[in-house]
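Example 406, ligand zinc ion.
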Amino acid sequence: MENILPADKYKFKRKLEELKAVKGQHTELISLYIPPNKQISDVVAQLRDEYSQSSNIKSKQTRKNVLSAIESIMSQLRYYKTPPPHGMVFFVGEGAKSGEQPKMMSEVIEPPMPVPIYLYRCDSQFYLEPLEEMLEEKDVYGLLLIDRRECTIGFLSGRKIEMAAYLTSRVPGKHGRGGQSQRRFERLTEIAAHEWFVKAGKKASELFLEKDNLKGVLVGGPGPTKRAFLNQNYLDYRIADKIIGIYDTGYTDEYGLKELVNNAANDLEELDIIKEKRVMNRFMEEVRSDKGLAIYGENEVKRALEMGAVDTLILSDALRRYKIKISCPSCGYSGEMVVDDTENIKCPECSSSVIIEDKKDILEEYSDMADQSSTKVEIISKDTEEGNILMKAFGGIAGILRYRIE
Ligand code: ZN
């Protein structure tokens, strides 16, 4: 997904989340995956076939729902001579999120990467795995921290840093008790160190070789031990070939894994986790300086966007807020509001239930405003420390200004 704008990736992700929450009461939700090279006429032929088979469904209500879902897809397909460049996926059927009334839904998704398969499925939920896979980070980096006492092995994949193994050694400290036994002590220490390195190297090689998408390995630790370890070939040669860099870290435990990734930032520039850290660091620097270029909060950011004054808009992907247009059938009120949840919205005038005329994700609302003033949009995952700060301390919406505003 490297070449996809963060806002588009986010919208795609959010759409999948919404579809995942939909359940049918019976087997009546249709997912239809059409790859770019598929003939539309072949798809229509199969749908006719499915249609006649579905006429045999025993339950009257389910039969009716499935047939009208298939009809809906067939009538939409009439507008296509060929599939779009990446193909498309239909999600159609009578379904609901929990707590909502079932209704006929119909979504056509043109995904950011080519649809890999042709598939028709009718089930009680939408089939989303092939699209979800598009969002997964495919590259994995191995992380290895070592000194004479500890060894931590982990992985970096997307924004996730995870520990896979933690080992401790029995190598005694460098200095013996002195006297005649000193040489013997040193020899024993070196034997113990060798055994330790063999054990650590074997474990790391094993874990790293299990990953068939291992892109590279980062090695860290305090002092010169890590280099001695590498120079003496304790790692499997297939892993040694993948070492991207060797970095000094203060720690060799789980905390050291984060330190290692931070220190390797320059060598991993294209990774999301690094890009996001860079954006947040820039923002935090602006917060600390008194130049007045850091802004946050819905209203302040909105005002600055309307003035075209925002250089970089920073949004948390943990935001779950919607801008809705409502109308009240009882008193005739209509207006807009921003809410966390679109269930049970009451009229601000008369407290009756309202009709939601339009619903827009707040993140989409802000990134659309940003597009109008060629503001850069950065979406920050909540999975990192920086992302957590953005959400908790700044409400998930922040920005860096082009110039100071009053
Ligand atoms: Zn009202």
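Summary: The first strand starts at residue 29 and ends at 34.
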